[in-house]
């Protein structure tokens, strides 16, 4: 694959597939904020949505095969619904394009492995959209732990609280809270503390009764046992009264490193009723920087001829833990992650 030089006309030409919440954001970044990249095409099943995301004069349309046949397209961002990722990934890989794919590749391990095998056969670069690894706070937590600043990890704890549950239409095809949402926490846990060997899930429907009929939950505690001997807990809920609340805490031999919840501003209002601060409403605001930095990292890796990260192993290993968590919830018992290893 021959790739262009940063900032030039020859910058890497990108196609964005799926122009909803995430695709539109990636398209906007690629059209002007990512060094070494340019947005050349946007495809969506809804032509009007594609046109709305065609920033900077990019072409838009509904015909994916035609877009993939365009030699100006050297790389793709896949931001279609999760149920279509594997199909889109395989088509892009067979067309020889470098691939950045939103998480997860698929909701089950077999489809994920099949799609990633096509990527491997094609020899195209691949990055999975585990954006938290590129959040400045979370990345610093990981760096400090990897550098051994506080010694061995003994406990990992994360909390991810969404402001509101997803609508029923989304839940029906999402694959459930573990593969759709907790997978971000799982990936951070793996990134920081290493591989997970066994999980135990405890879940309840306390917020959105319609989740019951999809076998899903909105409130979950997932305990993790790491290969290193460390233990962890991931606490997730689909409701807060105060926006998106994300924290990570890594307890080590000689102290702990913590990424606290971010606020929209650093303003505090002091009054008779107490002290009030702002909050960030949801993921598009909270991870504004990370969504840009992760794609910049992808482009920089392509230009340097390096392997983008997180790659195929992380796409499948984080899913493997999420699938084990889903099984643990269903069976009401701990599940070994290796149970799902072929
Ligand atoms: N990394 C993150 O933090 C994060 C956050 C939200 C969503 N996601 C992931 O991003 C993906 C998209 O989520 P979203 O919230 O943007 O969804 P969305 O529903 O807002 O957007 C999906 C878009 O895909 C389009 N689409 C449907 N069928 C298509 C087809 N055959 N070809 C091309 N486009 C098609 C839809 O018209 C829609 O515009 C999901 O896989 C989700 O898991 C990741």
Summarize the structure in words:
It is a single chain. With 342 residues, the protein is α/β, with parallel strands linked by helices. The protein has two domains: 12-124, Rossmann fold (3-Layer(aba) Sandwich); 135-289 and 318-340, Dihydrodipicolinate Reductase, domain 2 (2-Layer Sandwich), CATH 3.30.360. The protein contains eleven helices and 15 strands. The protein has helices at 21-30, 47-52, 64-69, 82-94, 109-122, 136-146, 168-174, 177-193, 283-286, 288-304, 312-331, and strands spanning 12-17, 37-43, 59-61, 75-78, 98-101, 126-128, 153-161, 196-204, 219-226, 231-237, 245-252, 255-259, 268-271, 274-277, 335-336. It has a seven-stranded mixed beta sheet with strand order 12-11-7-10-9-8-15. The chain has a six-stranded parallel beta sheet with strand order 3-2-1-4-5-6, with helices on both faces. Strands 13-14 form a two-stranded antiparallel ribbon. α1 (21-30) links the parallel β1 and β2. α5 runs antiparallel to α11 (312-331), α6 (136-146) crosses α8 (177-193) and α8 (177-193) packs across α11 (312-331). The longest helix has 20 residues, at 312-331. Residues 17-23, 43-46, 49, 64, 79-82, 84, 102-103, 129, 131, 283, 287 line the site of nicotinamide-adenine-dinucleotide.
- Average pLDDT, rounded to a whole number, is 95
The structural class is alpha/beta
**How would you characterize the largest beta sheet?**
7 strands, mixed
- Strand count: 15
* Shape designation: globular
Low-confidence stretches: none
- Order the strands across the largest sheet as they lie in space: 12-11-7-10-9-8-15
**What ligands are attached or bound here?**
nicotinamide-adenine-dinucleotide
> Any idea what the CATH superfamily of the largest domain is called?
Dihydrodipicolinate Reductase, domain 2
End-to-end distance, in Å?
32 Å
């Amino acid at each position: 694959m021959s790739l262009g030089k940063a900032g030039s006309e020859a910058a890497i030409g990108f196609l964005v597939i799926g122009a909803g919440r995430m695709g539109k954001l990636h398209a906007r970044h690629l059209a002007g904020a990512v060094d070494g990249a340019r947005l050349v095409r946007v495809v969506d099943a809804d032509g009007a949505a594609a046109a709305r995301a065609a920033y900077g004069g990019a072409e838009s349309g509904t015909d994916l095969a035609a877009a993939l046949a365009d030699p100006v397209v050297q790389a793709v961002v896949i931001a279609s619904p999760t149920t279509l990722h594997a199909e889109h990934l395989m088509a892009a890989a067979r067309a020889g394009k470098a691939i950045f794919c939103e998480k997860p590749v698929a909701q089950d391990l077999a489809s994920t492995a099949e799609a990633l095998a096509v990527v491997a056969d094609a020899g195209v670069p691949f990055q999975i959209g585990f954006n938290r690894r590129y959040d400045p706070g979370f990345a610093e937590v990981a760096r400090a732990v990897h550098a051994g600043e506080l010694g061995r990890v003994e406990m990992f704890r994360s909390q991810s609280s969404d402001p509101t549950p997803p609508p029923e239409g989304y839940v029906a095809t999402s694959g459930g809270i573990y593969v759709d949402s907790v997978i971000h926490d799982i990936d951070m846990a793996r990134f920081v503390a290493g591989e997970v060997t066994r999980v135990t899930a405890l879940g309840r429907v306390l917020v959105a009764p319609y989740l019951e009929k999809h076998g899903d939950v909105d409130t979950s505690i997932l305990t993790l046992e790491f290969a290193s001997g460390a233990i962890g807990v991931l606490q997730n809920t689909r409701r807060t009264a105060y926006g998106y609340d994300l924290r990570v805490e890594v307890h080590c031999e000689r102290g702990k490193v913590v990424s606290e919840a971010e606020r929209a501003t650093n303003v505090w209002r002091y009054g008779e009723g107490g002290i009030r601060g702002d909050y960030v409403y949801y993921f598009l605001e909270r991870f504004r920087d990370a969504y840009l930095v992760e794609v910049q990292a992808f482009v920089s890796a392509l230009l340097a001829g390096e392997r983008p990260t997180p790659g195929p192993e992380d796409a499948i290993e984080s899913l493997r833990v999420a699938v084990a968590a889903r099984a643990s919830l269903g069976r009401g018992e701990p599940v070994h992650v290796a149970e799902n290893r072929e």
